């Protein structure tokens, strides 16, 4: 199998704050892989360790064990220079489209910066900026404007264009649509899919929202308290979850269709009954 990113038995421990505070073990033996052109959705509740996983891939989290290999090369402890050279291959789109763009630079400068840093001439950078804006569905006159002149969805398109500038092989998308309203979310998610179909980029797509992950992912990994509790084909995990945590996550996700909502409510009650029966059965004296 052709693997782009291979995470193997990854541990991340944040140093404790304050005198004699214990380190916090945020990831405990996470293993996963991503193939070229594929989307791996990572889903889990707040605090489960999703962003920590993304940050570790980007070299921004303290890896205390295991490995992260990109195209077969271990990148879990790279120095600054090696990390910079990897920036062409691994990019990121963060959640907040308001703070992730430099407010004092116009769009031409924001998108042209990584290109110039890689030796593009002004003319080359300018042509590429036009192409990037076109690719994310923004008009070419956007180039002379400042980030504050755009809506949240448009800013996220600019952030995506910037991530695409160096033609990366992998983009870490950390809750990239969570700050957007529902209809904008849908359009931006479709843009992610369309870009992938055109460029063959792979995504590590992090979200707390199961419906978002289901929409974009080929495969889904479910994180719970720093561990992967379920990992498989997108449809399999989202439609027939095995782990009780995934089942709870799935049943808690909102659904627009009232019939489906009723079905879910009944399933949730049934699941709670089964889980409480199972607990009763394992408790001493329980299960009667
Ligand atoms: N720099 C840090 N120092 C100490 N603890 C941290 C640090 N960053 C994250 N944590 C802790 O690690 C755990 C995982 O955090 P992380 O941000 O990865 O979760 P998450 O699943 O992405 O949640 P959210 O969706 O709320 O961001 C949390 O308990 C968090 O408090």
From TrEMBL:
| PROSITE patterns named in the record | ABC_TRANSPORTER_1, ABC_TRANSPORTER_2
Keyword Nucleotide-binding listed? The answer is yes
- Would you say which domain of life the source belongs to? Bacteria
> Record's InterPro entries?
AAA+_ATPase (IPR003593), ABC_transp_ATP-bind (IPR050319), ABC_transporter-like_ATP-bd (IPR003439), ABC_transporter-like_CS (IPR017871), Oligopep_ABC_C (IPR013563), P-loop_NTPase (IPR027417)
Please provide the record's keywords in A-Z order: ATP-binding, Nucleotide-binding, Transport
The GO molecular function terms of this record are:
ATP binding
ABC transporter domain ranges (all copies): 5-250
Which SUPFAM superfamilies does the entry mention? Answer: P-loop containing nucleoside triphosphate hydrolases
Q: One Pfam annotation, family name?
A: ABC_tran
* PANTHER family the UniProt entry points to: TRANSPORT ATP-BINDING PROTEIN
Protein name as annotated:
Peptide/nickel transport system ATP-binding protein
Q: Which organism is this protein's natural source?
A: Subtercola frigoramans
Lineage of origin: Bacteria, Bacillati, Actinomycetota, Actinomycetes, Micrococcales
